[in-house]
Write a structure and sequence with these properties.
Length: 140
């Protein structure tokens, strides 16, 4: 007789502990993506030179070296800005995609038990009617 109680235990778990575990997993994945791409650090260092590469200004070598150092430093800042912008954009796309996938998965999670009941009833009716049961012929 305990077999007949099992579906009720499953539904109770599915909508309580299962949803809580799913939500915790979903928020952990989003936290990981946020930490992996470190959005706040990317924004704080957006205009820093790439890999901290820069030229020291050597005033003893003349005007040409100062101008050369200036342009190298500007170039490194531009490269840093481009790479950080691309990384930030990729992070936003990954975060948004995972957010949408998580919401869809959560909706599917809520629909699994009713769908299982539908499939069970359809299977029983197909057995009773010897495989001749067609859902298109059912009128409500």
């Amino acid at each position: 007789m305990k077999v007949f109680i099992l579906p009720f235990y499953y539904v109770a778990w599915h909508y309580s502990h299962g949803v809580a575990d799913l939500w915790r997993t979903f928020t952990n994945i989003l936290w990981f993506v946020k930490s992996f791409f470190s959005f706040s650090i990317l924004l704080k260092t957006m205009f820093m030179p790439w890999q901290r590469l820069r030229e020291k200004y050597d005033h003893t070598q003349g005007f040409g070296n100062i101008v050369g150092s200036f342009f190298v430093n500007i170039l490194m800042r531009m490269i840093g800005t481009i790479i950080r912008s691309l990384t930030f954009a990729l992070g936003i796309v990954v975060y948004g995609t995972l957010f949408i996938v998580g919401i869809v998965f959560l909706i599917i999670w809520f629909l699994i038990p009713p769908f299982m009941v539908f499939l069970f009833i359809t299977g029983i009716l197909a057995i009773i009617f010897n495989g001749q049961f067609d859902l298109n012929e059912v009128t409500v």
